Amino acid sequence: MPYLLNVEENSVYGKKKFVNAKDHTECVEFIRQATSAPETSKWTRGRLVKSFKSGELKRGTAIATFDDNGKYPTDALGKHAAIYLSHDNRGIVVLDQWNSQEEVLERTISFHKPPGTKRSNSGDTFYVIE
User: Fold this and answer.
1) Confidence band (pLDDT; 50, 70, 90) for 20?
2) What pLDDT, on a 0 to 100 scale, did the predictor assign at position 42?
């Protein structure tokens, strides 16, 4: 079962709204607080975002990168989690945050990135969190 945004979409904006116990604005903390998703060790890899037809995946669905074993990654290839807004043949529009950004913002994560691109910046590597 996918995790969905359980707060108003326009309420997620603002500096340091979704912080963890260390006062860090990590991507996972945003997902956990905004969707009530469990810790990452309990996440399983759902369907590849890119495989959905435009309009088929519900806006506000939690998505993330996963490793080859279907787990949230711990390797050097990168990891990330975000809230899905939409996608087209160019990329995925998401809401996300990370430590140096310190707030949730909207961005597009492009498809068809060159080899060596970290998972967090490659739309080809995002799946629905279940």
Assistant:
1) very high
2) 97
Q: Which domains does the chain have, with CATH numbers?
A: 9-129 (3.90.1720)
Q: pLDDT confidence of 117, banded at 50, 70, 90? A: very high
Instruction: At 38, list the tokens.
Output: 């469990």
Q: Within 13 A of 86's CA, how many CA atoms are on the CB side?
A: 6
Structure tokens at 78: 């990168």
Hey, what's the torsion of the CAs at 43, 96, 12, 89, to 10 degrees? -100
DSSP 83: E
Catalytic residue positions, numbered = 27, 80
Tell me the C-alpha distance between 106 and 42, whole Å.
Answer: 26
Supply φ then ψ for residue 48, to 5 degrees. Answer: -65, 125
